[in-house]
Amino acid sequence: MNVVLISPYEIGRQPFGLAEPAALLSAEGHNVSCVDLAVQRLADAPLAQADVVAIYVAMHTATRIAVEAMPRIRAAAPRAHLCVYGLYAPMNETLLRELGVATVLGGEFEPALLSMVRRVAAGEPEQSEPVIAHGKFTCLPPQRDGLPDLTHYARLLLPDGGEKIVAFAETTRGCKHLCSHCPVVPVYQGRFRALPRDIVLQDISQQVVQGAQHVSFGDPDFLNGPTHARRIVSALHEQFPGVTYDCTIKVEHLLKHADLLPLLSETGCLFVTSAVESTDERILQIFRKQHTVTDFARAVTLMEQHGIALAPTFVAFTPWTTLEGYLGLLCKLAELQLVNAVPPIQLAIRLLVPEGSYLLRETEMRPHLQAFDPHVLGYPWQHPDGAVDQLQESVQALVAEGEAGGCSRQELFAEIWHAAHRACGQIPPQLPARVFGRVIPHLSEQWYCCAEPTEQQLAAY
What whole-number percentage of the chain has pLDDT above 90? Predict the structure, then answer.
């Protein structure tokens, strides 16, 4: 069987979501080809000979690109069984099937993916595989040799101007928490599972052999399983003491598991991404984030004490964001000296409400919703104050132009600072240099999984 696995976008990382199923399918004797549209063209895929084409959609941007590319994929692989799998597949099942996708898989998709390929190989009639599954499955070390070399992906940029080649690994799936805006929740509904430690370490080891000097862990929350995380980082540091890493951890977990921070620091954690989302208490409550603005400030201090940079992320524009509240977000970042820790795209993110989102259950969300729009893969909403929507569009344009022009985070923040003050009818005060804070290690891919894709991204395939 000829199987083509396609990843539209993975935030500058070599896709685990291709490498892992490639190993499972190859072990059964199938001929597997992988194409990453972030660094390759669709023409690179051997689609004409494909019996199965499976597209991996772990995030909004990837799904938008997949939908745009679907007509060309179908035309190039007319006899192939089409499958879409990953976190965003179940939420967009109806639309995907309308586009000709026969199999849609989410959660622990591996058993169903293998079953589907076996049925196609045997010429058996099509049947519905479980769209969302949470059962256990046999793991194998991901097969990465069919993907572009790590040098084609995002680098770690260091404050001294140095760079490191980056590996990408996952240690868990799903999440214990039920944040109302999070795309993980509709699929996993509070569940999470740990991947075998030996498999994780084998995956990292093969990437270190390929030149990786830093590992970016892609778990929704690295401390959902604190014991598992402790064992992973301890073993990683013992085996590769010079390899550094980053991970994603909730503010709530940073405070609850503060006793683990010395270990993270000692084992090479350079920075932690944390979905702070807002500096407005009402919005944090609607999102069910389980932390406060005060907790956020405490986490910043705590991380500084242990020498680990905090890289907060935000959903800057929501139906409840006010002009003054947005300006308050910028002021809080300046107060906490986090300007250099926040990619400018974070200051332009507009709340996404995909099909199945728990936000659809929130009473405060309903008055703002419009009908589902397949073009944006979600429910559009309009702010009651048109000036807020105008500001979001202005900030989005500033960021896109600034990123294309190579502007620094400080330069873009200053432009956004001025735009926000103008929107509030205020004269912007001068920004003293100290508010920008220190430059922290960060990945060279500045875009974000929940940002709307640029026209260049949609056309790049």
Answer: 89
According to the model, what pLDDT value does residue 332 have? 97
What is the per-residue DSSP string for 278-342? -S-HHHHHHTT-S--HHHHHHHHHHHHHTT-EEEEEE--B-TT--HHHHHHHHHHHHHTT-GGGS
Segment (H or E) for 187: helix 184-188
Residue 453: how many other CB atoms lie within 10 Å: 19
* 119 CB burial (10 A radius; 0-12, 13-18, 19+): middle
3-state SS assignment for residue 167 = strand
CB-CB contact of 117 with 152 (8 Å): no
Contact by Cβ (8 Å): 410, 340: yes
Mean pLDDT, rounded, of the chain: 94
- Between CA 246 and CA 223 the distance in angstroms is 12
- Token pair, residue 407, equals 């502007």
CA angle 439, 240, 170 (to 5 degrees): 75
351-368 confidence digits (pLDDT tens): 999 999 999 999 999 999
Q: Which two tokens stand for residue 344?
A: 């400018």
Alpha carbons within 13 angstroms on the beta-carbon side of residue 342 total 35
Domains, the chain: 2-133 (3.40.50.280), 155-444 (3.80.30.20)
User: What number is the average pLDDT over the span 164-178?
Assistant: 96
| Residues 6 or more apart in contact with residue 122 via CB below 8 angstroms | none
Alpha-carbon distances of 162 from 62, 104, 344, 444, rounded to whole Å: 30, 42, 21, 12
Cβ atoms 281, 243 nearer than 8 A: no
Collapsed DSSP state (helix, strand, coil) of residue 172: strand
Res 450 pLDDT > 60: no
Query: Using CA atoms, how far apart are residues 97 and 101, in angstroms rounded to an integer?
Result: 5
